[in-house]
Specification:
With 443 residues, the protein is an alpha+beta fold. It contains 15 helices and 14 strands.
Amino acid sequence: MEEPFPEEQDEEEDEEWPRGGRVIVHIDLDCFYAQVEMLRNPQLRSKPLGTQQKNIVVTCNYEARKFGIGKLMSVKEAKEKCPELILVNGEDLTPYREMSYKVTELLGEFCPLVERLGFDENFLDITELVEKKFQELEPNSQIPIFGHVYKEEAVNFQDPVHIRLALGSGIAWELRDRLRSQLGITGCAGIASNKSLAKMISGVFKPDQQTLLLPENHREFLSSLDHIQKIPGIGSKTTERLEKLGVRKIQDLQEFPVFLLEKEFGISAAQRIHELSLGQENSQIIPWKPPQSFSDEDSFPKISTEEEVREKIRELLPKLLERISQDGRKPQTLRLGIRKFPGKNSRREFRQCPIPKHLIPKFGQENEELLPILEEILMKLFRKMIGGKFQLTLLSLGFSKLQEFPGNLGKGSIKFYLKRESQNKEMDTPRAPKIQKIPENSD
DNA sequence: TGGGGTTAT
DNA sequence: ATAACCC
């Protein structure tokens, strides 16, 4: 009578994985740049506001969205839709970068497993936190659910997986509450049993809300997302190739023969793609560490002389040097990036080179010699990339291979980095008093 | 269409 | 170094 265990994979697969063991939260800040600008100037809060980079409105607040303004819309179109739209320049990312790290830092106080994705998203693996709460549960205690549950599905309080996710919704609520009360920032959260699903579910109810996805609804939720590109990890290139195979909807992908996927993408990518379409994914949260590279770019109308290139380098280099010296680590590699004029799909080309050994120690201090030397190295690099005539629309400088310097013990460590970032805590946030939250049942 | 980032090959 | 991915 002993049925053999379904031997799906007796390989090195994570033992804990199926059974929906983990609880993952994805936090997605609402129109982040616009929020930061509204904190800097509260007058803007009640007005339609966008942040502008060159001729693009990159984000806008919800007042502006009422007029039909959306992400990455041209300034021209946005102004047509809303002539009284206020635009602030968002080309210097410093304020956003700083607030972004404050957010990650705050989340890190709850849980060491925080992963950043861009400036405005974070993943947390709160499995252990949830487990602790689970163990502390009194025999017949009521477990509140916070925020929405996808499909308004009833939580089954007999099911330990459901209970853990419900506890996770409480933690997500607390995280969002702290972001609002301490930093004045709102965002959405998704709670699910892996990163991919947590991320996809977080945007279901949009500003300042959260959504919980139960395992029974994985398939249905994925099918509801109709297009394959909604799956994180399936980008534009993969989408093109899939569409050539006749696959457009997630459901198409779920049902598509794996051996045909393997012919197109190779075994490992095919497996990944197929599993993603079913919501099966077990990648770990990679704890955040100090950035592995710094870069600074600028785009502009065509330039075509070396002198212009040199000028752009002179604008960008000091800013980067300042950031590097704040960080405390020293770069071993210098990178130059360009975009050539007929901007073939906005592609950039990069060249790197090692930074001469004797220059590396000079990076911490204010250093006048450093600038001209680096400038020359960059110009040489530039000449190597270009042969003769050129037209450029973008220049990018970057430092990488960041090395902690002996003598700077602990600089570059996470703690040090976070301290620096949060030092100018001019707590100008007279936020609404902390209110005891009542679970939103269904709004 | 901007100004960033990471990982895989 | 490039290409793919993410925001």
